[in-house]
Amino acid sequence: MQRSGEEIIKIAVAVNSANQVLQMYEASKNFTNQDKILICMGHAGIYTRILAEKFGSFLTYSSALSENTTVGAPGHLDVRELSEMYRFRKITNNTKIYGIIGYPLKASVSPWFFNTIYKLENTDAVYVPFPADSITDILKLAENLDVQGLSVTVPYKEAVLSELTKMPPIVQSIGASNTMYLSPEGWVGDNTDCTGFSASLLVFLGVKNLKYKKITIVGAGGAARAVASEIHRLGGKALILNRTVHKARTLASQYNFKWGGLDNQGIETLSKYCDIIIQTTSVGMDGYEAADPLELYSFTGKEAVMDLIYTPAVTPFLKRAMTAGCRTINGYDMVIRQACLQYARFTGNEIPEKVLLQVNSMGANTWNKTQPA
Ligand code: NAP
C-alpha cells in the first residue's frame, strides 16, 4: 500500500489479544511520514480508537448508538462517549495517559470517574480501558504509549507484583496491588482497595472499628486480600470461604482467621460468623455468570451485607440479602473512595472537594442505582 502511493493507508484488523495490538503499534513505526489510519477492531483494541492520535492515526471511527441501534463495527464507541467523556478532539501527543488493566474488563466506573474529573479541572489527560489477556504485553504497550498510571483490576492484582520495581510494605504483606504509577526507576505499586474498603464499611456500619464483630469473607482473590488485611487491622474476627479451598486456607492463616469452602460445611461455620458478610468474588459481575456464590446460605435478615461488585448495582447475591431484610451496600462507595486515593498517587494532588462533590452527585444518578428493578 505504501508503494502504491495511495494518499492514506488504512489498516483495520480484528484483534483478540494485547500482543496483536502491540504488533500493530510496532508496525505503525514503519509509516512515520505518511497519513494513516490504524484501527484494532473488537473489545481488545478499544483504546486504539480512543488514542488514535497516539497511534498516529489520521482519524477514528464511531457510531451514533442508542438502545435501539446496534454497533457499527466491533469496538465502536458511541460518538458522545468518545467526544464528551474521552474528549477525543482534545487528545494530542502531549496528553497524559492513564488507564485500567484487567480482563475481560467489560464494566468499570473508573474511566467515567477519572475523565469527568479531568474535564471539570481542565486537565490535559485521558483515562482509558486497556482490556488485556496478558499483563506483560499490555505493560510493554503502556510503556510505548508513555502511560503514567494504571488501575489494576480482576484478575491481575496478584500477578502484577512481579512487574513492580518498588512497592510499599502493605502491598508486600497483602500480596496484591490495584494501583501502579511510573517513576524514573519503573512501576511503583500501591493498594488503595484497603482504605477504600474499610472507610466504606465503617461509614456504612456507623462504627469506628470491627472489635467483637464476626465476619465472613466470600472469596480469596486479590480484593479479598485487601479486605482480610483491613478486617484484621480493625480488630474483627473472620472466616474466609472460597471455591478453591487452599487459597482460603493460605489467606486465613496470615491473620489467624478460620477458613472453608463454599459447601455445606463452610456454610455451617458461616452461621457463627454472620454479623457482617462481605462478598469479594467476581461471581455476579457484568461479563461473568449472573450467579450467587453463597446460594447454599439462607440470610436471617440480621446480617449486614456488602458486595464489592457495583456493576450490576444489585447482584443476585445482594438482591437475596435485601429481600431477606438485611442492611446492604454494594461496591460503588468503595470504588470511588479507592479511586480518589489512586488519583492522589497518579498526580501527587488531592481531588478538590468541590470537584468531588460534583462528580459524586453525577455518579449517584449514573452508576449507583441500588434498588432492584
Ligand atoms: P480475583 O483476584 O480474580 O479473584 C476472584 C475471586 O472470585 C476468587 O476468590 C475466585 O475463586 C472467585 N471466583 C471466580 N469465579 C468463581 C465462581 N464461578 N464460583 C466461585 N468463586 C469464583 O479478582 P479480584 O481482583 O479479587 O476481584 C473480585 C471482585 O471484586 C470483582 O468483581 C471486582 O470488580 C470486585 N472489586 C471491587 C472493588 C471496589 O472498589 N468496589 C475493588 C476490588 C475488587 P477461586 O480462587 O476459586 O478462583
Question: In summary, what is this structure?
Answer:
The protein has 373 residues and is α/β, with parallel strands linked by helices. The protein is built from 13 helices and 13 strands.
Overview of the molecule:
The protein is an alpha/beta fold and 373 residues long. The protein has helices spanning 18-28, 46-50, 79-85, 110-121, 135-144, 169-174, 193-205, 222-233, 245-255, 264-270, 316-323, 332-347, 353-366, and strands spanning 9-14, 36-41, 96-102, 125-131, 147-152, 179-183, 186-190, 214-218, 237-241, 258-260, 276-279, 304-307, 327-329. Strand 9, helix 9 (245-255) and strand 10 (258-260) form a beta-alpha-beta unit. Helix 1 runs parallel beside helix 5, helix 4 (110-121) crosses helix 13 and helix 7 (193-205) crosses helix 8. It binds NADP nicotinamide-adenine-dinucleotide phosphate. NADP nicotinamide-adenine-dinucleotide phosphate (NAP) binds next to helix 7, helix 8 and helix 12.
